[in-house]
Amino acid sequence: IKKSTGIPRSFMVPVEGPQVQGAMMTPNGSYAVPVLDHQAYTQKSTPPAPVPEPKPEIPEDLLCNICSDLLTDAVMIPCCGNSFCDECIRSVLLESEDHECPDCHEKDISPGTLIPNRFLRKSVGTFKNTTGYVKKPVYRQKPEPKPVENTEIKNKKE
């Protein structure tokens, strides 16, 4: 059993004996518990966890087919006219060897030909304002660069 040395008497609540949780022995031989501990031991109830608000249903025409979330900086791809998030479609086009459209699979689509879809951008803004929807940021890891072998130096050494 700990002694209540250093704790002012005004901060202590007398208790029955040492069997009480958190009890300390006072200088006069009685037992006491700090007021804050006493309140905590008597309450013992934890407040209920806040219930997260359900996410609003995103309209199908405002969804990106790549990330399956609300469009961010909507752009239209010229081959099939479908819209995607700017970052999503640029990443897909640059990562594919043939710069292939993920929907119609047409090849050689340059990220420079993407057209900003102002109508969808406006619709997304209206949706965000009316529902309070906030898109969670997606952190993409950049692929590690492959070491480039310099053949000129290799040939000179031989």
Automatic annotation (TrEMBL):
Annotated SMART domains: RING (SM00184)
Keywords: Metal-binding, Zinc, Zinc-finger
Matching Gene3D superfamilies: Zinc/RING finger domain, C3HC4 (zinc finger)
SUPFAM superfamilies in alphabetical order: RING/U-box
Pfam families: zf-C3HC4_2
Domain of life (superkingdom): Eukaryota
GO CC field: nucleus
Positions of the UniProt region annotated as Disordered: 136-158
Domain named RING-type: residues: 64-105
InterPro entries linked to this entry: RBBP6, Znf_RING, Znf_RING/FYVE/PHD
GO molecular function terms listed in the Swiss-Prot or TrEMBL record: ubiquitin protein ligase activity; zinc ion binding
GO biological process: mRNA processing; protein ubiquitination; ubiquitin-dependent protein catabolic process
Bias (Basic and acidic residues) ranges: 141-158
Name used for this protein in its record: E3 ubiquitin-protein ligase RBBP6
Organism expressing this protein natively: Anoplophora glabripennis (Asian longhorn beetle)
